[in-house]
Q: What sequence folds into this?
């Protein structure tokens, strides 16, 4: 075979390898961009559980998959709340404190579902009266809990749950806000159970969902609220900040409460790509596809770069644990440093993502109570 032929073969092989590489890179990036936009409910770990110590403790298998702190466990006969580890570990069952809330956990092993939402059901699960109301959203009716306050309640709290979550996320915090005298709205938003689906069936990462939260703000104002506190957890934080930025009702916002918020989607998505082994350049290719497929400009969601645009008369209470491995707190820390005049940052916890309350509910509530009393006009 001549040199010329060998050269053509070599060029063909190199070209083929490049084509395969491009297809591989694009395919993986396309897959991960789809994961970011796909509507899913967060999977809940299933474990074998049983009551021990006369029902005062719960036994889980060795290698208990749940982090420390309060978590709910649903089982065939009801549900309850488990607290921190009591004893066990290694090759022995893990025993944790247990409180039956509804039904009784049997002493024989059953399969239970563990949930970081320490309370399940509706506001009656925390002893609060409420109304099931409907907020008229852009795409249709949004099922919403309205928890009235004792007293005039001029300032309402409007809560946005995180990606893959439900309204049950709010149940941990309702008693505190009720104690402080604030009526609370907990709306669903597009793609939630019982709410309209987005036309494309995807998450907008805040780009579309903020309009549903804005509708809840308008609902509160129509019912007599003079101002609102926007509260957002995880992706709910990104939604809240878009309401503050884009809503015609933004002047009515008197405060913002964020727990483990997404304040920079690019940073979060690149981090999550690294968790599954993608190099940064590959993750950034996936981020670019997220923008293309979602019709997004993620620069709009970088609140460190946009920190100067945040209104100086709206205080922000920002809880973001140093132990968060899902949405690392580095950008929240950077935001607090960029706007120390409005941002109060609480970060001294080893809790995982949005589990600061679970690990230390008394301390969590004490800090937030103090902020509400000192900062809200």
A:
């Amino acid at each position: 075979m001549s040199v010329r032929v060998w050269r053509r073969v070599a060029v063909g092989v190199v070209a083929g390898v490049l084509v395969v590489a491009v297809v591989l890179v694009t395919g993986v990036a396309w897959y991960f961009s789809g994961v970011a936009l796909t509507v899913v409910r967060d999977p809940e770990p299933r474990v074998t559980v049983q009551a021990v110590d006369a029902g005062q403790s719960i036994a889980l298998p060795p290698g208990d998959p749940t982090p420390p702190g309060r978590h709910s466990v649903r089982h065939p006969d009801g549900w309850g709340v488990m607290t921190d580890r009591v004893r066990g570990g290694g090759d022995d069952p893990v025993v944790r404190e247990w409180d039956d809330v509804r039904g009784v956990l049997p002493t024989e092993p059953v399969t239970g579902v563990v949930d970081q939402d320490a309370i399940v059901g509706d506001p009656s699960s925390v002893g609060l009266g409420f109304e099931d109301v409907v907020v008229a959203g852009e795409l249709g009716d949004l099922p919403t809990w309205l928890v009235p306050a004792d007293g005039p309640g001029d300032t309402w709290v409007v809560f946005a749950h995180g990606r893959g979550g439900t309204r049950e996320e709010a149940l941990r915090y309702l008693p505190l806000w009720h104690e402080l005298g604030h009526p609370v709205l907990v709306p669903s938003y597009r793609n939630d159970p019982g709410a309209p689906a987005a036309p494309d069936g995807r998450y907008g990462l805040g780009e579309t969902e903020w309009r549903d939260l804005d509708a809840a703000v308008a609902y509160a104002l129509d019912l007599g609220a003079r101002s609102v506190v926007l509260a957002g957890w995880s992706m709910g934080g990104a939604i809240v900040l878009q309401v503050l930025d884009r809503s015609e009702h933004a002047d009515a916002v008197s405060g913002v409460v964020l727990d483990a918020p997404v304040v920079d989607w690019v940073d979060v998505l690149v981090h999550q790509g690294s968790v599954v082994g993608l190099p940064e350049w590959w993750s950034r290719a996936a981020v670019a596809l997220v923008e293309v497929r979602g019709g997004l400009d993620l620069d709009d969601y970088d609140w460190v770069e946009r920190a100067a645009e945040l209104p100086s008369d709206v205080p922000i209470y920002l809880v973001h644990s140093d132990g968060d491995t899902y949405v690392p707190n580095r950008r929240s820390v950077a935001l607090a440093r960029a706007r120390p005049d409005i941002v109060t940052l609480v970060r001294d916890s080893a809790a995982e993502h949005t589990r600061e309350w679970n690990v230390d509910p008394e301390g969590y509530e004490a800090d937030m109570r103090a902020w509400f009393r000192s900062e809200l006009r």
